[in-house]
Amino acid sequence: VLFILNGLERLNLDFRLAGTELCCDPNEPVPPSAIVVNLLRKYLLPEASIIITTRPSAVRRIPGKYVGRYAEICGFSDTNLQKLYFQMRLSQPGCSGEDSVGSSSGDQENLVEMLSRNLERHNQIAAACFLPSYCWLVCTTLHFLYFTRTVPPSQTLTGIYTSFLRLNFSGEVLDSTDPTNISMMKYVAKTVGKLAYEGVMSRKTCFSEDDLQQCFEVEMKTESELNLLEVFRSDVFRFFLTPCVQPGKEHTFVFTIPAMQEYLAALYVVLGEKKTLAQRVGKELSEVIGKVSEDVAVVLNIISKVLPLRFLPVLFNLLKIFPRYFSRLSGKDRDAIAHTMAEELFKEEDYYNDDVLDQINSSILGVEGPMRHPDEAPDDEVFELFPIFMGGILSRRNRAILEQLGCSIKNLAAFEIAKAMKKTVIRNSRKGLPPSELMDYLFFLHEFQNERFTAEAIRSLRTVNLSSVKMTPLKCSVLASVMGTTCHEVEELNLTSCNLDTSSLRILFPVLLRCKALHLQLNSLGSDACKDIRDLLLHDKCVVSNLRLANNPVGEQGAQYLAEALAGNRSLTHLSLLHTALGDQGAKVIAQHLAKNQHLQELNLGYNSLTDTAALHVVEVAKKHATLDKVHLYFNDISEDGKQALHSLRMDRDGVRALVFLTAGTDVSDYWSNILNVVQRNLPFWDRERVRQHLALILQDLESSRRQTANPWRKAKFLRVESEVKKMLGKLQHGT
C-alpha cells in the first residue's frame, strides 16, 4: 500500500509518546493525527510506503529518524521540458475553456516557436517558467489572447490571474501553529502587495534588500510576526520574487511574472490595506470603542434610572460618536480607491503606448525585429494593467474566488467603489482618448464585469476611434461585448489600419450595424470581406451612411458584392472605394447597380486604373441618379480627351460634379484641397512612382492654366496650389 499525504504543514503532529500513544491495530479507533504519526513511526502497517509533500518550513516537524529520503521538487531544470510542456499545452484547443475552432495547427506551431525563441534570448522569462505553474499561466494567457472568439469572452485576464492564485494557494494558511490563522494569500496581499504598490507608484520593477526590509517592516515586528515572516520567506517568497538577471542588478529582486506586480498592487489597494498610521489606529480604536460601548450602554441605562445624573446620557452618546465618525471616514476610502483607479487609467504619459493586450503579448512572445537586449530594462516602466486589475478584482466572480483565499471584499464596498467611479472614471473618459488608450478603457470595462456601469459608460461614447490598434479576435470580442450593453447609435467608428479580416467583421457585425460613419480603410479586406459588408448594408437595421473602404484589395469580385449592396441599401450616402483595385470591370458593375439606389450622394472611385470608357459610363449613370452629385475620379488612367469631357460637366445642367484634377479652365478647382488632402493621407500606402507621375502631370496642368489667365488673384491661387504639389513631390523624392 502506498499512502500519499499532501500538505504536512496543515497538520500539527506530536511525535512524543506522551502526546500520541502507540497504536499498531488498524481497527482501533484513534484520532486522524494519531494514525498519521503511527504510520510514520512504522508502528502501524510497517510494510506500507509513504510519500509526504510539505512546504520547506514544516520539513523538520517529522523527526529525521522516521524519514528515508528527502527530495525537493524544483521545477523545469531543462528548457527542453518547458518547450515540450508548451507544445502539448498549446496544441489542446479547449484546455483554457475557450472554443478555438478555426485556429489552425500552423498558428499553434507559430506560437510555440515564437515562445521558444523568446525563452532562449530572455533569461528573466526562462527563470519564471522554471516553475511549472507559471508555464500554465503563460499558456492560459496565450489561449486568452489568441483563441478567444466568443462574445462576450468567457474569461477575463484578472480571472486568469485570480484562478492561478487559487490553483496554488486555495485553503492555504501561512502557519497552522500561529493563533492568528492568517491565510497565505491575505498575508501576501498585505506584504508583497505593499511592495508591488510602492513599485508601481515609483515606476520601478527592481527591488533591493533594503526595499524588502522597509516594506516588511522588520524592525517593528513582534516575535510572532517575525516567525510568520520567516515562514513566508522560506515557503512563498521565491514564488513571487526572483533574483534579477539583468547585468549590474544581480543583487536585486523582480517579480517572477511582471504582470503579477500590478495584480498584487491592485489587490493591496482594493482590500483597503493602503492606510496611513492614523487610519490603522483609528480603525482598531473604533472597533474597541464600538464593542465597549455596547456593554457600557447597558450599565449606564440602569444607573440613569436609579441616579438622576444628567451627564450620563451625554457620555453614552459620546461613546457612539467615534464609531459613526470613523465609518464616515472609511467611506472616504472608497472614493480614494476610485480616484486612484481613474488617475492611473488616464495617465497622459501613457497615452501613446501600445494597448495593454499588445504589451502582454510582447512580454511573453517578444518583439520581432531590431530591439534592445531583452533583459535590459526599458527607459520608463509602464504599469497600465494596474487600474484594469483593480476593476477586474471588483467583479463578482473574482471576489468570490478571493473570498476562498481569505481576501474578503464585501458587496457593499464594491458597490460604493463603483458608485464613486461614476464621478471619476466616466467623466475622464469623455475627454477624448487616443486609440490605444481607448482600447485599454474598453478592456477595463470588460474586466470590471458590471453591465449596468458599462452601459452608462458606453452611452456617453458617440465616437469610437481605434485606428491603428491591431484588432485581434479578442479585442473584437471585447469591443462587441462592451458596446453590446447598449443599443444607442454610434456617430463614428474608426477602424482604419486595424488588421481586420472576415472573422473580425463577423464578430463586430452587431456593432457595425449601429454606426453611422464607418471607417475600414487599410485593412486588406478582399472579396470575402465584401460579402460580409454586403450582408451588413442589406440588413434592415443598418444605419451606416458613410462607408470608407479605401486602400483595400476589393477587386472585381468584391465590387460585385458591393454593387448588390448599393442596389438594396437605404441608408448609405457616402461611399469611398479609393484605391481598391476595381479596374474598368469593377466600376462598370457598380454603375449598373447605381440606378436601383436612391440615396447615395458621393462616390469616390479615385486611383482605380479606370480608363475613359469606365469613367464616362459612371458619370452618365450619375447624371440620371436622383441624389448622387459628386464623383471622385482623380489618379485614374483617363486621357486628355476624357478629362475635357468630364471637365465640361456643369452642376446646374448635369446634376453631378466629377473631381478629376485641380484646375477648372483658367481657375483652380473648388475641390483642390480635398484632392490634395486625400493624396497626402495616402502617400505612405500608394505606389510612389505612379503617384509621382500623376503629381507631375497635375503640376504641368497647373502651370499651363496659370499662364493662360491674366487675373493676378487667380495666379496667386495657382502658385499656392503649385507649392503644395511641389512639397509632395519633394517628400516622394527624398523618401519621406
UniProtKB/TrEMBL annotation:
Keywords of this entry: ATP-binding, Leucine-rich repeat, Nucleotide-binding, Repeat
Coiled coil: none
Gene3D superfamilies: Ribonuclease Inhibitor
Domain called NACHT: residue spans: 1-86
Domain of life according to the entry: Eukaryota
Keyword Repeat: yes
Pfam families: LRR_6 (PF13516), NACHT (PF05729), NLRX1_C (PF21402)
Domain NLR family member X1 C-terminal intervals: 668-729
Keyword Endoplasmic reticulum recorded: no
Entry-linked InterPro entries: Leu-rich_rpt, LRR_dom_sf, NACHT_NTPase, NLR, NLRX1_C
Protein name: NLR family member X1
Organism taxonomic ancestry: Eukaryota, Metazoa, Chordata, Craniata, Vertebrata
